[in-house]
Amino acid sequence: MRTDLSDHRFTAAGLFTEAYTGMMNRFAAQLEEHHLSPVEFEVLMRLARSPGCRLRMTDLAAQTSLSTSGVTRVVDRMERDDLIRREACPSDRRSSYAVVTEPGKARLDDVLPEHLELIQQWLIEPLSADQFTGLMASLRAIRDAVNPCATAGTTDDEVHLPPQ
Fold first, then answer.
1. Which domain holds residue 103?
2. Residue 10 Cα distances to 22, 75, 136, angstroms
3. What's the CATH code of the domain at 140?
4. Is residue 127 part of a domain?
5. What is the C-alpha to C-alpha distance for residues 140 and 95, in angstroms, rounded to an integer?
């Protein structure tokens, strides 16, 4: 084998993947208790954190790990569960918005306190304030390189220090 398997790039990608997978597994178990899939939670959060609690369907697809047809299927399912609704775009008849409903906001209100505890425990507490600031800047740089459409339809948040 000619490739050096001890190359630090493999280690970096592996550590990133292991950290992500571990956190997502912990999140998935918690979300399941609230009858939400990780994708449904991601959609609710993206919408709730967007101006007017809504995004164009195409922007929602760009911001999530879903294709346009995948977003349509998830929105259909979430609309049947009354978590979100579709709204026509007044300036473009071909577009529509996905909008969080009051029951969707209530579901988030139920999920978020425990979810924030998990984020605090597994992402914030292991890091110093400087490490957290560096992590946020690094994640944004990586995100912007691999997914430049990730903030389509919204304004990106500033780096905020964790509470001490």
1. 12-146
2. 18, 36, 22
3. 1.10.10.10
4. yes
5. 28
Radius of gyration (C-alpha) of the chain in whole angstroms? 18
Contacts of 122 (CB under 8 A, 6+ apart): 22, 23, 26
Residue 66 above 90 pLDDT?
no
What distance in Å separates the CA atoms of residue 163 and residue 125, rounded to the nearest whole number? Answer: 10
Residue 74 lies in a domain: yes
CB 74 within 8 A of CB 1: no
d(CA 62, CA 57): 9
What is the per-residue pLDDT across 32-44, written as a single tens digit (0 to 9) for each?
999 999 999 999 9
- What would the pLDDT profile of 90-146 be if each residue is shown by its tens digit? 888 888 999 999 999 999 999 999 999 999 999 999 999 999 999 999 999 998 998
